[in-house]
């Protein structure tokens, strides 16, 4: 799914999706962990969880758009292509991140919706409840949310280690594919 010889960086839309969603997810992770420490029903847990849910549901809405765009636009070519196995490992890690970016907010949605809790979007509107109120389903959603959260934390840690290794040890082109430096001859300039 690459466009050989055309461009060596993800396009603006893909970079926009990546960095916007990375910021939303990192903020949601931090808020979720902090809120989980607070006593249920107290302030500021409630308010923080409302923001957490709003961020997470935004991720859930953006993900299909990002995924379809990625399928259509493909990935940029490499100046110095990695080995087959390195490329396969990166693809597997990225696909796992896509799957976790779907399953984590989805499990949070089931937890909150089946528990009869609110589904706000920054106080502007509320998302519809598409599952019945069901304590067992809500508990299952919570269990899934907790463990998928750990899974995302783990794979994200590997993602960041891999990026750091490329940027600081190998000093290769990988970081520049998602964060091109001005004048580095990325997009159409090098077509
Ligand atoms: C916050 C620091 C982050 C940095 C420095 C970073 C850096 C990068 C870089 C350099 C790439 C391109 C890799 C390549 O060309 O092979 C990339 C791709 C990717 N990153 Fe990140 N990333 C970060 C956070 C995240 C987060 C929070 C997520 C989601 C949980 C994420 C998900 C992805 C995915 C799915 C791809 C593959 C893009 C595609 O091919 O469609 N990243 N990232
Ligand atoms: C990218 C999206 C999301 C991420 C990264 C995320 C991550 C997390 C994490 C790490 C926790 C702490 C788990 C614990 O230690 O118990 C948490 C808790 C929570 N999340 Fe999410 N979440 C996301 C989306 C959602 C969504 C969409 C909802 C609901 C609509 C939601 C509802 C909750 C609730 C209610 C808690 C509190 C759990 C408790 O202590 O009772 N999350 N989330």
UniProtKB/TrEMBL annotation:
GO terms, molecular function: electron transfer activity; heme binding; metal ion binding
Pfam families reported in the protein's UniProt record: Ni_hydr_CYTB
Residue intervals of the Cytochrome b561 bacterial/Ni-hydrogenase domain: 10-180
Highest taxon above the source species: Bacteria
Methyltransferase is among the record's keywords: no
GO biological process, one term: respiratory electron transport chain
Subcellular location: Cell membrane
GO CC aspect terms: plasma membrane
Membrane-topology descriptor: Multi-pass membrane protein
Transmembrane segments: 20-39, 51-69, 90-111, 147-168
Keywords of this entry: Cell membrane, Electron transport, Heme, Iron, Membrane, Metal-binding, Transmembrane, Transmembrane helix, Transport
Names of required cofactors: heme b
Family the entry assigns: Belongs to the cytochrome b561 family.
Name of this protein: Cytochrome b561
Annotated organism of origin: Methylobacterium frigidaeris
Gene encoding the protein: yceJ_3
